[in-house]
Amino acid sequence: MFLLLYFILQILTKENAVIVILCRNEEMNQISESIKNFEEIFNKQYNYPYVFLNDNDFTEEFKSKIKSVVSSTVEFGKINYPMWGPPKHINMDKAKENMKSLESQNIIYGGSLSYRNMCRFFSGYFYRHDLVKKYDYYWRIEPGVKFFCKMNYDPFKFLRESKKEYGFVITIREYMQTIPTLWD
């Protein structure tokens, strides 16, 4: 009886939130390990849904593996243009030239168009994706992350109760060489 009441209470008090993951099929093992860890420290208790996004279609093998490690529902989606890729007005010849220059200077992600697409997507498009826009709160997880302590509270509930809209963690300083014209 207690478990049934607990389950009903969890459903009634759960926030309108989702775990958002951008990854590729080839990152299946990394992300499944990250999810196992995340489930153990947090989501087994709260059962928030997952949305997986990719700029290509997910394979059936990927979907099956992910479904086997999550405790809640999961949706898989594709990111299409214009959410993924440079805007049409960008001179791609000049962009490639600049990326090649950054790469020759051994600047992290200097030659990666995919990295730029990801940054652009998370800077203004992810919350507009059809699978994500129905939620009020999002938690982004990346392949390879590890959590080292159990979460004894629901951060989504904390955000709502504290009338906060955004939470973040700072992990590294920006490499100034990657943004030479940002403030010009």
Automatic annotation (TrEMBL):
Pfam families: Glyco_transf_15. GO terms for molecular function: alpha-1,2-mannosyltransferase activity. InterPro entries: Glyco_trans_15, Nucleotide-diphossugar_trans. The keyword Signal applies. Residues 1-17 form the signal peptide. The keyword Ubl conjugation does not apply. One of its GO terms (cellular component) is membrane. GO terms for biological process: cell wall mannoprotein biosynthetic process; protein N-linked glycosylation; protein O-linked glycosylation. Keywords: Glycosyltransferase, Signal, Transferase. Belongs to the glycosyltransferase 15 family. This is Glycolipid 2-alpha-mannosyltransferase. The lineage of its organism: Eukaryota, Fungi, Fungi incertae sedis, Microsporidia, Dubosqiidae.
